[in-house]
Amino acid sequence: RGLGSSARSAREESWLKSLFVRKVDPRKDAHSNLLAKRETSSLYKLQFHNVKPECLEAYNKLCQEVLPKIHEEKHYPCALVGTWNTWYGEQDQAVHLWRYEGGYPALNEVMSKLRQNKEFTEFRKERGNMLLSRKNQLLLEFSFWNEPVPRDGPNIYELRSYQLRPGTMIEWGNYWARAIRFRQDSNEAVGGFFSQIGQLYMVHHLWAYKDLQTREDIRNAAWHKPGWDELVYYTVPLIQEMESRIMIPLKISPLQ
């Protein structure tokens, strides 16, 4: 009787452990190497600037004078992908997306050269007086997403940002590698990125639409495609928090 009780206790202990211990599959490579584009070594920086409401017009004017000089100067191995003001979402906010062609060495080179640039130093000082807060993230692009290339407008842009549960980035990538094909019919997919530095386990999807009604029509049409609902069903549990911004490009933005 004692032996039976002991065996039963051991089984119960083993069952309880199985509830809390999750087997981890060994991997031979970093998640970023599995998910990112291998044919490029581009690094992206996403900047969020919360501007004093009375300063937004002056802030935009200042950016439109200075940012193209950095973008067009071959001396700097970087490019302005897009620059916007948030229309719906957090108000009086500017969003900038930069590409550094060559990864972290290119980022370091640009930052080092800009520190020696007196015009940029003055720009940062003047800009700083207009801001309430700012933050940035360094990102890589998903291998299965479109390359964010310049496009003609007019368009509105939606930046959908997802805070994932830690440890779920590979699952997210596996599902969205299939899901993205459902969202290509109207050329609305601009770019998909995941964070490396800053707020981690963050995913950003960037979409372009003619207007808000077109956005609604395209999103509704996806639900009529067999398989889309299943992929949404499996990705929703991976998300801790999500946010949508509707953004208007500035005149200097390559994404119009």
Automatic annotation (TrEMBL):
InterPro entries: Dimeric_a/b-barrel, NIPSNAP, NipSnap_domain
Record bears the keyword Transit peptide: yes
UniProt keyword list: Autophagy, Mitochondrion, Transit peptide
Domain NIPSNAP: 157-254
Annotated localization: Mitochondrion matrix
GO biological process, one term: mitophagy
GO cellular component assignments: mitochondrial matrix
SUPFAM superfamilies found in the cross-reference section: Dimeric alpha+beta barrel (SSF54909)
PANTHER family documented for this protein: NIPSNAP-RELATED, PROTEIN NIPSNAP HOMOLOG 2
Family membership: Belongs to the NipSnap family.
Protein name (Swiss-Prot/TrEMBL): NIPS2 protein
Gene source species: Leiothrix lutea (Red-billed leiothrix)
